[in-house]
Structures are given as structure tokens and as C-alpha cells.
Specification:
Strand content: under 5%
Structural class: mainly alpha
Shape: globular
Helix content: over 70%
Oligomer: single chain
Largest sheet: none
Number of strands: 0
Distance between the termini: 23 Å
Radius of gyration: 14 Å
Number of helices: 5
């Protein structure tokens, strides 16, 4: 099983480095990301859950890591995360099931476990 907490940290560090070396594209993307997931008619949590489902359908492990992390930070519950994985599976079929399994690992690592 991958260490998704470390994976998230590594991605953050590399993207920060890229942003320093190529600020134009990263600054633009960072603004887009911030505006796309901020609260509006849909909550930031809902938007992160949508991004997680899409991450499964496009088979992007790094995206799964980011959006599980950010959905948990936005207050997503385990049940909300699991239902989101179900939608991702619906839209991606068999190949998506592998990414659902990876997302389950990420949920276990980012979502605080009850005592």
C-alpha cells in the first residue's frame, strides 16, 4: 500500500518548486483551482467530492490523493467519500475499480479514525 500522506506532501513540494520556476502557469492554475472549489451554490466539500469522482474516472492517482485530502479537510465523512467512490465506479467501470481501491487506501490514511 502506498503512503498517500507522504505522496501528498511530495506532490505539494514538487508543485511549489514548479511554481517557483514557472510561476505563470502554476499561478493561473492555482487561481482556477481556488475559484472552482470555493463555496458558492455548491459547497466546497461537494465540489471536492465531485473532483474525487472525476479523479477515479480519469484514472489519476495523484488527483485522488489531493481530492481525498481536500474533501476530508472540507469536512467530508467516510460515508460521503464512499458514495463518491461509487459514483466514480459507475462512470468508469472495471478500470475505475482499481482506482476505487487506491482511493480507499487514501481515505484510510487521511480520514481520522474514531477512537
Amino acid at each position: 500500500m502506498a503512503d498517500y500522506v507522504a505522496h501528498h506532501q511530495h506532490l505539494e513540494e514538487r508543485l511549489i518548486q514548479f511554481g517557483k520556476e514557472m510561476p505563470g502557469p502554476m499561478t493561473g492554475f492555482a487561481r482556477l483551482h481556488k475559484k472552482a472549489v470555493e463555496d458558492g451554490a455548491l459547497s466546497a466539500k461537494t465540489k471536492e467530492l465531485m473532483a474525487l469522482a472525476i479523479s477515479i474516472t480519469v484514472h489519476c492517482e495523484g488527483c485522488i490523493v489531493y481530492h481525498v485530502h481536500d474533501a476530508v479537510a472540507a469536512g467530508a465523512t467516510r460515508q460521503e467519500l464512499l458514495e463518491t467512490l461509487g459514483v466514480g465506479l459507475l462512470m468508469s467501470g472495471g478500470p475505475g475499480s482499481i482506482y476505487v481501491a487506491l482511493a480507499m487506501d487514501a481515505i484510510e490514511q487521511f480520514l481520522p479514525q474514531p477512537d
